[in-house]
TrEMBL record:
Keywords: Membrane, Transmembrane, Transmembrane helix. This is Uncharacterized protein. The chain crosses the membrane at residues 6-29, 41-60, 66-92, 113-140, 160-183, 190-209, 215-238, 250-271, 291-316. The keyword Transmembrane applies. It comes from the Archaea.
Amino acid sequence: MNEYVLFFFIPLAWFVTAFMIEAGSVVMIPVCRYENYREKMLIVIGSLWAIIATSLVYLVVSLDTIFAPVMFVTGSVLYAPLMVLIIMLAFHHFSIGVAEGSSTLGKHSMERTFLVLALPFALIVAFLGNTLFTSVFSGYGFCVHNLLTLDITPNYTQMIFNAFNWVFFIGVVMYVVYFTVVFYGIKERLLVGALGLTLANILFLVSTYEWLPVVFNSAVNNAGFWIYIVILYAYLYIATTRNVPFRQAWIFLLTFIGAMMFGAFTQGRILEDIVPAGTVGPLPGVPASLLLTNAATLTAGAIVLGMAGLLVLGGITAVSYKVLYKVATERVETKKATVK
């Protein structure tokens, strides 16, 4: 796979991992019966909005820099779901912002109302993001009239209502259940986390076997994939039964690595299910490397994007952790000590 294609997967994996934390927290807060975990979830939600929004912007800028020759095509095909996703994400963050403000003012009933309101927006954003992801790699929703001239039109009904999209999305939801249990170390839900991870693995393998054979074959024939699965189960047990230092950072890193592994297993190919093997090379799909911009722009863009990734994403993440998460955590601990 061309190394420049990694600039697509790195910000994508970062965005997906950060949004998983927020979405899992928002979904769990209304149903979590353990007040100690609820407090942690509220702090995390208030710390993530800047990281998620910045990651999405960085992802779009990366795509525009690396795949400039085809951005007009993908933009016209994916314009509608992408615009709805951005609008829903704005409403989602607005709801969380109002909930945070209500909590600060002591209006806890309003806080709960807006957190519940944020839930459907989180699910819609997750589903639309999954739809964009699965459509690009499978080709569902892309009506290719002439591949050479990039004459492609959208079919939104097929893009949304195809089996691959729904099976993969349910797999993502199951992984988020596992991720949330591990992230917060919810020892009372160890078995729920194990069930979520097992269902996620099954659904991911079934969906890629049926619709992304390149990904499936690359994964099951790679020993690293199976070692990674074992590590996920082992860490679930350790994180819910032991006091693991930097527990949240480790599961974030593991999930980020998993997303990057998926990117590597695609071998840089897109539209796998609509472009047969032999059309563009021996494997199904189209190599994304054929869609890259010119070499000079790639070289310069890689340097700028690399620096921007470290300074912007790294900086925003560090500030969110230090100013929003750590300070809020210390405030809660101080409040508990005062009450005692």
